[in-house]
């Protein structure tokens, strides 16, 4: 029995089969010891040795796969979706976790194995994605990372004992979402003619005099900007960063659009308040900015 099992294990039949063998041997050890107690010491010792060997080679196999991820890190694909290496590794992880889920091993032992499996695979995967994205622009990098993390999250969500890892992945997704929200708001403000005006209003100090006397903030410049801004208000969907169309999750895309639009409304409110403030000496300010912040918010909601 020992020789035959050793032959199968040492032949390295792949991580999934090794894990199934390891779990099966643990089950047999648990069952036989429960029936015959210590009267089959030799058999139980043999089964335990084979269990530990198969488990060791299983984790060696996983670690080898994970270490190869960093040997040749691919550039992200043009659509900023998950890389081939990520998809292949998540397929392997899914198969291992599926066999783990149907495992006959006691719950606490399964949970301990599970934590080790996730550390062995997920940490190198995250490192690979970070290195892969390191030369991309800000919006491209955030989009690629959100897509990669989203794929990891949807894979883990199907299985038990993943709550802590899911929380960590969600935390990382949200950090990259913040980047995309700010990038999208900046994209809109620049193309809708408000970016430089908003920046000047934010940085303006009273000792610099009134805003109306600044060359890029006189009434003519503001009216020209409002023509551009009105164009955006009539078709807000025309000003979406191309990267948003590459996002795998429609919910994530909607969240970015909603929260970036809130930032645009806030920026307009600040500009509006500054123009309406008598200190800034605009003549007939309502004719310059003819829409109130509430009207802008209504048009964009």
UniProtKB/TrEMBL annotation:
<protein>
    <submittedName>
        <fullName>Component of oligomeric golgi complex 6</fullName>
    </submittedName>
</protein>
<dbReference type="GO" id="GO:0006891">
    <property type="term" value="P:intra-Golgi vesicle-mediated transport"/>
</dbReference>
<dbReference type="GO" id="GO:0017119">
    <property type="term" value="C:Golgi transport complex"/>
</dbReference>
<dbReference type="Pfam" id="PF20653">
    <property type="entry name" value="COG6_C"/>
</dbReference>
<feature type="domain" description="Conserved Oligomeric Golgi complex subunit 6 C-terminal">
    <location>
        <begin position="1"/>
        <end position="300"/>
    </location>
</feature>
<dbReference type="InterPro" id="IPR010490">
    <property type="entry name" value="COG6"/>
</dbReference>
<dbReference type="InterPro" id="IPR048369">
    <property type="entry name" value="COG6_C"/>
</dbReference>
